[in-house]
Amino acid sequence: MAGCSPELRPLAAVYVDRQGTAHALLRSCDNDGLVRGPGLRGSETRATEEATPGTAHGTAPEATPTEEPWIGWETRGAHKAADFPLFAPPPQWAAETRGQQTLRPGYSYELDFADPGDSYAYRASVTFDARQLAGVPAGEVLTHRGTMTREAFEDLAREAC
User: Fold this and answer.
1) What does residue 151 show for φ and ψ, rounded to 5 degrees?
2) Residue-wise pLDDT tens digits, 76-92
């Protein structure tokens, strides 16, 4: 029996504020404004530019058994949708962090969450890297559908529900 993937809805965005801080913007279709298991996962996308001690030139070091192969944060359960600094989710979410909590060149990031209900009818996700995020014009956000004004994102999120 084959399962269906949840519908990808435009409910997650990232942007940089006037102070230069990267932010996550999550919206929900739930009547209570909840999202399930929001998280940020960054993975190295290319070989390192220079040799690292103990590695061959141009290859990325492998994770040791105690290191995680990704950086970012993850949560469990349902949480109130929010707008917050990308690497500082609300404290009440009790996020588990992994690795350096800053944007790093050579990493691809995915910010995502799922439908808070048991139906798993939808999910939201935006994938980006530091260069893409830095290129988002002031007053705009980056979504899985591209760059748009925050107002357009808010309208699209409402329509998606």
Assistant:
1) -60, -45
2) 999 999 999 999 999 99
Radius of gyration of the chain measured on its C-alpha atoms: 17
| Cβ-proximal residues to 14 (8 Å cutoff; 6+ apart), any chain | 22, 23, 24, 25, 86, 111, 126, 128, 133, 136, 141, 142
pTM: 0.83
Q: Give the integer Cα–Cα distance in Å for 54 and 73.
A: 28
Strands (E), 75-143: 78-80, 83-85, 96-98, 107-114, 122-129, 140-143
Contact present, 142 and 15 (Cβ < 8 Å)? yes
3-state class (DSSP) for residue 76: coil
SS3 132: helix
- In contact, 93 and 60? CB cutoff 8 Å: no
Residues of the chain above pLDDT 90, percent: 76
Q: Which of 37, 45, 38, 95 is nearest to 70 (CA)?
A: 45
